[in-house]
Amino acid sequence: MKQILSNKLFMSLTLSDLISNFGDSLYYLVMMRYVLDIPQTTLAMSIIYLSEMIPLMTAIFTGDLADRTSNKISAILKTQLLRVGLYLGVAYLMSFEAALYLVLGFSLINLISDLAGQYESSLFIPVSLRVLNNEERESAMGFKQALLQAGQVIFLSSGSIFLLYFSYRQIALINSMTFLLSFLILWRITPQIKRLFIDRPLETDQKESDQDSLNFLKRLKLAYLQFRDLPHMMNILIIVALLNGVLAALNNLLVLSIDQVAGFVIGSATQTIALFPIVLLIGQLIGSLLAMSIFKHLGLYQELFLGALAGVFIYLSLWLGNVYAFFATIFFLALVSGAIGPKFNAYLMNHLPEERISLTMSSIGTLITSGVVIIGGVTVILMNFLSLKLLVVSLFVSMLSLSLYVIYQMIQRRKDLI
């Protein structure tokens, strides 16, 4: 821990992320409040939701672009300046009376900003490879994830105070200034980062020195082959995608249980629904911290088994109609999830070839997200045709089957659990 805190470059980059996250949190709260000021609230919410879904499917393209960007530091600085300008534009539009056409404008600006941020995150991967060594990467990523999650809790909690004392336009200006401050932090440490790239130049594939001559599908295939060649990774990816997918509709099942199961509340229905994201966030925060100690000694398969087992007990608690058991198992699942993320990402960053690392990691993220979209979507549809009990039993059987599959994989790989 002391070694991580003494890494000034890592701490500066983490501070930059924390500041920009603060601006993003404020902007999210502003948009949720802004739509209440116009008559077409439902339509406005749909527009915002769609604009936030698009980036889920574009990570592959921005990751590929990041791999093919030679001057990554310059590109990062330009994306941050772009986002400063975008939110200055939002501040200007906020001076007009609230209207649906402005929501369209805000959503478009936010979409461009999210795509720029996605591209920026991929550009940062080679920087992270040089700022952290392989041995400290998992602990450092756990620390950073925990810090950002703690910041998210504080930012969302304090956001309502900003809405009381600042106008929408002023908050948009604050958001713009957070990106400017992040830019200044990175600009200040740019000479040090450039020295890291001089000491360890970017890796390129000599057989593919002209990457532009390769079409995107060929590059994607090469990225897939690199990932497939990592020991056990295809199995782990399938397990993670299925686990995320089967658990994707939990929020909707909670609402249905509150509506249909007597006594399935803690306090009131509103308090119970609000408790769900809080428990998830706190669990992931503690799990990220434990990734540096207790969970550090567990392999990925062992952690995935704990996650699948938590899923079994989540659906068992829904079937039994026990709201306290439901939240206890949700907390445990979030705890394990918070520990899996740093270990999984650190393993990938330590083993993937650098020349296509952004594309490969973006592709993995998209595949995991597809499990949420597909299985979660099917579950939402089935809610309209199956009873709650039958749906919960079906998902319980699915989670039990997944747990048994993970146990089988663990037995097969007793000597190498990653």
Give a topology summary.
Blueprint: H1 2-5, H2 8-34, H3 41-53, H4 59-67, H5 72-93, H6 100-131, H7 134-165, H8 168-199, H9 216-228, H10 233-246, H11 250-260, H12 269-290, H13 300-320, H14 323-351, H15 357-382, H16 388-412
Can you describe this structure?
- The chain has 16 helices and no strands.
- With 418 residues, the chain is an all-alpha fold.
- It is globular and about 60 Å long.
- Structural class call reads mainly alpha
Overall mean pLDDT: 81
Strand content: under 5%
> What oligomeric state is this?
single chain
Sum up the overall morphology in one term.
globular
Can you write the helix and strand succession as a string? HHHHHHHHHHHHHHHH
Biggest sheet, in brief?
A: none
Which stretches are poorly predicted, pLDDT < 50 over at least 5 residues? 206-213
State the distance separating the first and last CA atoms: 22 Å
Helix content: over 70%
Number of strands: 0
Q: Please work out how many helical segments DSSP would assign.
A: 16
Radius of gyration: 22 Å
Name its key features:
single chain, 418 residues, mainly alpha, 16 helices
Overview in brief:
It is built from 16 helices and no strands. It has 418 residues and is mostly helical.
